[in-house]
Amino acid sequence: MAAVAVHQFAQCITCHAWSPDQSMVAFCPNNNEVHIYKLLEDKWEKVHVLQKHDQIVTGIDWSGRSNRIVTVSHDRNSYVWNQEGAEWVPTLVILRLNRAALCVQWSPRENKFAVGSGAKTVCICYYEQENNWWVSKLIRKKHDSSVTSVAWHPNNILLATTSTDGKCRVFSTFIKGVDTRESKTSSSSDSKFGEQIVQLDLSFSWAFGVKWSPSGNTLAYVGHNSMIYFVDDVGPSPLAQNVAFRNLPLRDVLFVSEKMVIGVGFDCNPMVFAADDSGIWSFIRFLGERKASSSSSKYGSQFSEAFGKLYGQSKHGLSNDTVEPSRAHGVVHENCINCIVPLRKEGPRTKRFSTSGLDGKVVIWDLENQEVVSDYL
């Protein structure tokens, strides 16, 4: 089994992020707070509670260079938190949204961050030194529904988004005075802020998590129709593949190398996808896979699992005859995994990552000793 550490922090976790040295983890326990835990003498202890939002916190990202935390919430606000002594001091970011903020991510150079929202809008936020505040520029009228995920290209300029309109889009976020022309690539050399580079219409259902490969040559995103999409040569003539699987849909993805992707979602167990030497992607296996009980069929177990999740079998006060999920594949998480975050990296490869979900657990996974997947790292 690839899971090396399991921590039950809450009854439900909305999202999580790690400090630069990975000694602290910040997460939202499905409310308007952000809890920060620190590992002290082999025991996790709560050291901070960030209280500023009025509604559920939907996105957290902890910058690796500047040690700043950015949070977004259903209250339509965003805060950048700076550590001053023993306290975390918030700075309000004016997003100018009329719907909930749903996701957030720092750019690779950490001079900008992107916020996706239910207002069909993406906010690109940056710091104005002259006025000593964070401001936002909006990418409007490009999405037909809520923006569910954002992902920065390694060049710090291109931004990929997914939306519940079923589409994945790539935009230029070049901001004069913030970005330099040297950081532009040929595909965005003449693009202005908010210009759409490409629109991918591969999914006919909601689209969720999206990520770039370490080199930025490949884009992967997932749909609510139990499919994952891989796109090479993002631009006017992209090369696209899709992989369909018989299990429950994914919610997020992570490239651990150029040839391997980890997908997480409603099946409660990370799924491994990899590309062969000819560049064809396919499903490889579940991490920590175990065999299902011989007394239940494949379709029966999937139905009972989905039915149990739909009606919240983990809630208190339900009778003993409530349908319980069989979890034929799950070994650690007991409910939907909604967040995956990279940990230790070796160059462009990620050997360890963490997941969190609706069961309130944060799980650290290690790929180093996985013989089945080691060839793709």
UniProtKB/TrEMBL annotation:
Xref: Pfam families: WD40
The main place the protein resides is cytoplasm
Q: Which UniProt keywords apply?
A: Actin-binding, Cytoplasm, Cytoskeleton, Repeat, WD repeat
What does the entry give for GO biological process?
Arp2/3 complex-mediated actin nucleation
Localized where?
Cytoplasm, Cytoskeleton
Which Gene Ontology terms of cellular component type are present?
Answer: Arp2/3 protein complex
Which stretches are WD repeats?
50-82, 140-172
Signal peptide start and end residues:
none
Instruction: Quote the InterPro entries the UniProt record gives.
Output: ARPC1, WD40/YVTN_repeat-like_dom_sf, WD40_repeat_dom_sf, WD40_rpt
Which Gene3D superfamilies does the protein's record reference? YVTN repeat-like/Quinoprotein amine dehydrogenase
MF terms from GO for this chain are: actin filament binding
Q: Determine if Mitochondrion is one of this entry's keywords.
A: no
The job of this chain, per UniProt, is described as: Functions as a component of the Arp2/3 complex which is involved in regulation of actin polymerization and together with an activating nucleation-promoting factor (NPF) mediates the formation of branched actin networks. Arp2/3 complex plays a critical role in the control of cell morphogenesis via the modulation of cell polarity development.
Say which family it is in.
Belongs to the WD repeat ARPC1 family.
This protein's assembly is summarised as: Component of the Arp2/3 complex composed of ARP2, ARP3, ARPC1/p41-ARC, ARPC2/p34-ARC, ARPC3/p21-ARC, ARPC4/p20-ARC and ARPC5/p16-ARC.
Question: What is the name of this protein?
Answer: Actin-related protein 2/3 complex subunit
The organism is: Theobroma cacao
